[in-house]
């Protein structure tokens, strides 16, 4: 059996609540999200913060156009741009400073993106969150979707909160401590379980008084 099948079987065996979700949705497509361009992933993450998927894609596309296409999205090319051009693409002044800080760190070697693969999860978290604009959530998304680390569980992600709430049949949002306790069942594949929780919310959105929460990552 493939690794994917083995992990699914293990999670199904361990957690009867998650089992029907896994059986209904099928293969975990988390590995499909990986690209060969970690720098591009980080720039995209910065431009996407606090924006709708559509707005984020539009602004990221404009930034890519400024440097002549995806292949031109390098630290050197971004540092060569005037800040006003990045602003004209739709980035806020704060995000411009984030993009410049990221580019400078990669350019001078303070952030060695290729070395990240050999670091532990905690070391990667520390390296990414040292860059302006990157909090724990952004670093966890990088670990999951870019480095394909198997045991990340982002308790600060609203989709995961809602997924655990629905899975456990809770009336109110679970606390981080509750989520981590429940997620112990899924070690060392909490990333895979998290992916299924996102899908659970997508296929059956949780409607609150204010909004419908859904995830579209991955």
Blueprint (SSEs and pairs):
Elements: H1 3-14, H2 19-25, H3 38-48, H4 53-66, H5 75-80, H6 83-88, H7 93-108, H8 121-129, H9 136-146, H10 158-168, H11 176-183, H12 190-203, E1 206-207, E2 212-213
Antiparallel strand pairs: 1-2
Shape: elongated
Assembly of the depicted chains: single chain
User: Low-confidence parts lasting 5 or more residues at pLDDT below 50?
Assistant: 205-218
What order do the strands of the largest sheet run in, or round the barrel if closed? 1-2
Total number of helices: 12
DSSP summary, beta strand count = 2
**Mean of all residue-level pLDDT scores:** 89
Our Rg estimate from Cα atoms comes to 19 Å
In sequence order, what are the helices and strands, one letter per element? HHHHHHHHHHHHEE
Helix content: 55-70%
Briefly characterize the structure.
Helices cover 57% and strands 2% of the residues.
Sum up the structure in keywords:
single chain; 218 residues; two-stranded antiparallel sheet
Task: Describe what you observe in this structure.
With 218 residues, this protein is mostly helical. Helix content is 57%, strand content 2%. The protein has helices spanning 3-14, 19-25, 38-48, 53-66, 75-80, 83-88, 93-108, 121-129, 136-146, 158-168, 176-183, 190-203; strands at 206-207, 212-213. The longest helix is centred in the middle third of the chain and has 16 residues, at 93-108. The chain starts with a helix and ends in a 5-residue tail after the last strand.
């Amino acid at each position: 059996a493939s690794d994917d099948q083995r992990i699914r079987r293990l999670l199904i065996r361990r957690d009867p609540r998650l089992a029907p979700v896994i059986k209904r949705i099928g293969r975990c497509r988390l590995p499909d999200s990986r690209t060969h361009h970690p720098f591009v992933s980080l720039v995209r993450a910065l431009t996407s913060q606090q924006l709708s998927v559509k707005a984020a894609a539009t602004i990221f596309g404009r930034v890519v156009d400024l440097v002549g296409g995806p292949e031109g999205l390098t630290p050197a090319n971004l540092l060569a741009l005037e800040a006003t051009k990045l602003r004209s693409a739709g980035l806020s002044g704060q995000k411009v400073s984030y993009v410049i800080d990221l580019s400078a760190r990669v350019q001078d070697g303070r952030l060695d993106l290729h070395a990240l693969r050999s670091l532990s999860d905690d070391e990667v978290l520390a390296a990414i969150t040292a860059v302006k604009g990157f909090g724990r959530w952004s670093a966890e998304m990088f670990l999951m979707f870019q480095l394909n680390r198997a045991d990340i569980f982002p308790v600060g992600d609203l989709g995961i909160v809602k997924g655990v709430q629905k899975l456990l049949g809770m009336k109110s949002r679970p606390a981080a401590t509750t989520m981590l306790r429940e997620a112990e069942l899924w070690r060392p594949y909490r990333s895979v379980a998290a992916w299924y929780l996102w899908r659970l919310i997508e296929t059956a959105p949780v409607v609150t008084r204010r909004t419908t929460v859904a995830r579209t990552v991955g």
